[in-house]
Amino acid sequence: MHKPLVFLTFLFGLGIVLARHFDLSGLGLFLSAGTALVVAAIAYFAARKSGRLLIPALFVLLGMAVTGLTVERAVTPLAAWENRAVVLAGAVVRDADVRPNRVAYVLEVREARTGDEKLNPGGRVLISHYEPDAVYGYGDLLEVRGVLTSPRSPGNPGDFDYRAYLERQGIALLLTVRGPGVVEKIGLDRGNPFIYQALAVKERLGAGLDEALAPAQAALVRGITMGVRGGIEPATREAFTATGVVHILSVSGLHVGFLVGFTLLFTRLSRLNPTWTVVLVLVVLAFYAVMVGFKPSVIRASVMALLLLVAHRLGRLRDWPTALAVAALVILLGNPLVLYDPGFQLSFAATWGILYLGPLLVRGLDRLAERPGTRWNTACSWFLAVPLAAQLGTLPLIAYYYNLVSPVALLANLVAVSLVALIFILGLFTAVLGAFAPVAAWLTAPATGALVDVFLALVRFFAGLPGAYFYVATPSLLLVGSWYLACYGVGFFVNPASWRERLAGLHAGLAEPGRRVLGPVLVAACLVIAFLLWPRGPGVPQGLEVHFLDVGQGDCAVLQTGVGGTVVIDAGGWRGELDGEPGVGEKVVLPYLRRHGIRQIDLLVLTHPHEDHSGGARALRTGLEIKRVVVAPPGGMEEPSPGYLAMLEEFSAAGVPVNDVWAGDRIQVDSQVTLRVLSPSYPLLAGTRSDLNNNSLVLRLDYKGRSFLFAGDIEQEAQARLVLQEDLQVDVLKVPHHGSGAFVPDFFRAARPGIAVIPAGHQNRFGHPHPTTIEILRGLGAEIYRTDLDGAVIIRTDGHHLEIETGREREVLDPAA
Questions:
Q1: In this predicted structure, what is the pLDDT of residue 234?
Q2: 782, 729 in Cβ contact below 8 A?
Q3: What is the largest CA-CA distance in the chain?
Q4: What is the Cα–Cα distance from 213 to 197, expressed in whole angstroms?
């Protein structure tokens, strides 16, 4: 059956993708493409072939034009004031995102001042207020004082792209403030009255839940009913993610289905006529979509529900592919950049899985149950098929974006759906009663709280099962596409009648053989591609790979050898991480290793106890298997922190050998790689500016004809000692102490590196790297790479040639860089 809207939506999406490769002047292109589309549509309905040929091309152009216009809307003259202190006045255009230690607002800027300059710029700025003295809402007019910054592109390949995430919301600038008095309310502008009322109801319902339930229960019910996840504990979110039920906290099509079902039940009991039923469903879904923030999954489910209801009312066939395409087109016309949003992709992939694979699975399950004495019906098949089809539809995308596979997801979803339906309905009743009749909230609150506790216990039980989830390397896009092609090809086997129709355009004598041959060939080809392309992790590179990660103001290098060995030299660290606070180990280093399929670290080297080098190690211990840890020997006049010593005890208690090494020791990683320890030597340096820095481990790696020197944080005293004792000349130097000015020029002259890598944080408070360090390295002819500018620096070598890749293109042409 020909489905033109599906094809046209595909072409519109193709235009969005192509727009990334063209410099568009959005408005002009949009107007010209729109005019041409109207002309072509007239020609089409006049049955002119030229019109029919023009429409596909015009839909591609329309996708490109709308994308260009959307990108232009995010541009604001305020960008010229980046890194300057400003005073902004504007309106809050979304409900506040409230977290335990901060609140975030999207501010539509109406006036901006810096010094004697003044602008009426428009555009949106994300305000992050830490330690706030008040929380404001949609329509409030605020005045905010702070320094404007712009979000950076990700430094490490595969990291979350915060800049693109904000761009999809029309936000180009950030302003972060702390404490009372920096954000003040100066008025009220209710803006869109429908949105204002919907968000006011949402706020009141949230307060009703807080009134009726315990804090943890209220936070979870807010997530299930309204998609608000700010108050949910991180451990709970991780359990939901691991068991494949995190969509329950995101307001997905499941929630819209509950709402539509409840509304239809109400209209049936009220004996409302079909027309008014559709109108009521439209109003309820529109109000709910505004409450939860126009999430793609909600818009998709709402549009499809309305189309199917209208089709039923008109006695038309329920054409789910067209309904799905219309839903996608509606969302993409509103914001074409949402095409790149994982939530959008997962929502449509799950829906496609349910609607395409679901009937195929039901047919297969029904056939398996066709045995005498088997008590089975199609309803049981659907009960199993729906979550299984959704899992099959989303599996490659979850692996691609989150590197996660959850074998218990099917079982967890089977158990969860019935409980969530009850929690959703009871939770809404409890919110209403808590908001408008707190005394009566006891009617539903105890049952709601008990269901939430049972649900949480079940999720934690599934998450705690052996093999409940595991991490995989990021699959290639070709492999992801092969998976969907293979799933599509299953229809050749299970639904032959449908495919005979699809092949009806072929020669009559070829249709049936084509069906018999094409299906097996398609699936077999996809399986072969999957076998060839599935990443086995970078455990088997062709030679040696050294990844200097962008961990902010800290150090972390990952070495991968040609026979599968993995060495991590330092693990970065943020303030408080050694004391158990979340930080770079959990948020940057561990995800990076998982994306590369690394499940085991053969050797973890902590060059010295400072937190910016060792803080992330605790997350690596809990997330991966570590075979051995080597550390700098204790001594000197500067003591390691209690958090560092406690972490080493945790390694030992977990059965991981922890050894200190000295100059002259050799560390055998595998048959190809040996690390030589050049420093510290006995006696340890004492009484220097930083004994811990100067007694850092310094390691040399020689791989065939190429050499690397990892110099920790050594300063003048240790550098001078090394110059006298060792031959330091190397191809690649990890510059000591983030390129600080505490260096001996002879150290760099002795090393004379062809490549110098400086790990440093963006605009760090220490002024690293120091201009004199850059100057002397450049004078020696070194090619300088900096993680603050270049992001991750990845060096590959076969022992002869060096290949260098960086995580980002340099954004600032620093004259000292």
A1: 82
A2: no
A3: 94
A4: 24
Residue type, 538: P
Task: State the pLDDT confidence band at 546, using cuts at 50, 70 and 90.
Answer: very high
Element of type H or E holding 143: strand 140-149
Q: Can you give the pLDDT at residue 586?
A: 93
Angle subtended by helix axes 26-45 and 49-73, to nearest 10: 160
Question: How many residues can be counted in the chain?
Answer: 817
Could you tell me the CA-to-CA distances from 298 to 241, 254, 259, 346 in Å, in that order?
20, 9, 11, 12
Percentages (nearest 5) of helix, strand, coil residues in the chain? 50, 15, 30
- One-letter amino acid at 7 equals F
Compute the distance between CA of residue 160 and CA of residue 588 in angstroms, rounded to an integer.
9
Nearest to 152 by CA among 103, 82, 77: 82
Entry pTM: 0.85
Name the token pair of 326. 């219309």
pLDDT at 794: 95
Q: Tokens at residue 523, please? A: 């699936």
Q: In what order do the strands lie in the sheet with 556-560?
A: 658-660, 629-631, 603-606, 566-571, 556-560, 544-548, 793-797, 802-806
> Strand 674-679 to strand 666-668: parallel, antiparallel, or no bridges (unpaired)?
antiparallel
For the stretch 698-729, pLDDT in tens is 999 999 889 999 999 999 999 999 998 778 99
Average confidence (pLDDT) over 364-386: 75
Q: Which residue has the tokens 């830490």?
A: 130
Please give the pLDDT value at position 516. Answer: 45
Please give the DSSP secondary-structure letter assigned to residue 247.
G
H/E stretch holding 783 reads strand 783-786
Residue 691, helix vs strand vs coil: helix
Digit-coded pLDDT (tens) for 294-327: 888 888 888 888 887 777 776 666 678 888 898 8
